[in-house]
Design goal:
The chain is α+β, with helices and mostly antiparallel strands. It is 33% helix and 33% strand.
Length: 177
């Protein structure tokens, strides 16, 4: 008997109206401690980033909504012309349990169906067990470890690299993930 598919949320393009909320999420210690850039940023830096990146057709800045409430940020950065993108994401710090999985399912549907990507790549700092488990639970395959690749200002950390192909995602979706 197939598993019930989990409920999904809504993905929409990030707008200027989302900047303050995303800024608060991004600067929260529980979010930034797992980011490659862990320093607090200013609102001006954040606005400048949004203005610059939103003009790049290879970048897709998105908001995930759960029951109509903005609950996370997702971005896809297309690397080349053969439909491969890196992705990044984070949740609102007050997101309820299960929202992360909904964000992942909804964002990957968007990546493969709307953006017509062939592959989505993810990276996680090796100490970020939740992100590593998250990628694996969504069907990503570990493709390697970049040893001592990231320096956080105090020490070097390994980076775990993941990949998910469109055909793998379609198979997982049909099997009810």
């Amino acid at each position: 008997m197939p598993k019930n598919k989990p409920a999904k949320g809504l993905i929409r393009k990030m707008t200027v109206k989302d900047i303050d909320q995303v800024f608060q999420w991004r600067n929260h210690i529980d979010v930034r401690r797992f980011m490659f850039t862990q320093e607090k940023i200013t609102l001006d830096e954040h606005r400048n980033w949004f203005e610059r990146v939103s003009q790049d057709s290879r970048r897709h800045l998105l908001i995930f909504e759960d029951d109509g409430i903005p609950s996370g940020s997702v971005n896809f950065n297309q690397l080349d012309t053969i439909s491969i993108a890196d992705w990044g994401f984070y949740l609102a710090t007050d997101a309820k349990k299960g929202v992360g999985r909904k964000l992942g399912l909804t964002a990957l549907d968007y990546a493969f169906d709307e953006l017509d990507l062939r592959k989505v790549c993810g990276k996680a700092l090796a100490f970020n067990d939740r992100s590593i488990k998250f990628h694996r639970n969504l069907g990503f395959k570990q493709e390697g470890v970049l040893r001592e690749q990231h320096f956080d200002g105090k020490k070097f950390h390994d980076v775990v690299c993941f990949g998910l192909l469109a055909q793998e995602w379609n198979r997982h979706n049909r099997e009810g993930l």
